[in-house]
Design a protein that fits this description.
The strands form two sheets. Strands 6-5-4-7-8-10-9 form a seven-stranded mixed β-sheet, sandwiched between helices. The chain has helices at residues 2-10, 23-33, 74-86, 102-109, 122-134, 169-172, 195-204; strands at residues 37-39, 42-46, 58-62, 92-96, 114-119, 141-145, 156-162, 179-191, 208-215, 218-224. It is built from seven helices and ten strands.
Length: 238
Amino acid sequence: MLSALARSLARVGVRIQTRVRSDASWTRAWKARGGRVRVGRLVIQPAWMRRPSGRRAAVVRVDAGLAFGSGEHESTHLCLRALAGRVRHGDTVIDLGTGSGILAIAAARLGAAKVLAVDNDPVAVAVARANVRANRVKRFVTVRQGDGLAGVRLKANLLVANLTADTLPAILRDVPRCLAPEGRLVASGFTTVRLRDVRGHLAAAGLVVDGIDRLKAWCAVHAVVPSATAGPAAHRRA
């Protein structure tokens, strides 16, 4: 994701400098700054924190380790916002690029009956599985190592793809067959600089954009197959 962001920002004259840190240093740094993230009734928090008070809270306890997805990044927050607003009891959800498993677990906490979490990184898959077990949602969430939607036979009410603008096109051709009637794709993981590109990729795949959610420089695009466009448009945020 960082390399894709660097390419996007380079187009407007912004350069990113990086330095390599050890895995142990990254893990310690994340734990040191970890705190609660609230999105609607979702509460994302590090695994070592006490559960907040309040019966309505849908708590997701995450140890991100070396995987992406602690709830702090804007793209993850946008996906959590989409889940909080759209997941209904009994839904089927697909989470592509699951990372720590945060979105898949959140979907289960919100009432999804079946969640498939997919990532091509074996480290992320191991972390996601551990978080699924720790949150006691294993009966609802299946974590799989795989390449996009290859071999997926589910029909999802909501398909969340927190990927980069450069990796998104490879999965889009399979999205329509993996969406239930009136199902929806929420794609995030890119800045507004790449929004025009993403719109073009979605149109080429036969998907219609019916909502855009923004948070700082990042955005999430909501899209449906043409037959589902008769419903109300997604809420747009500036």
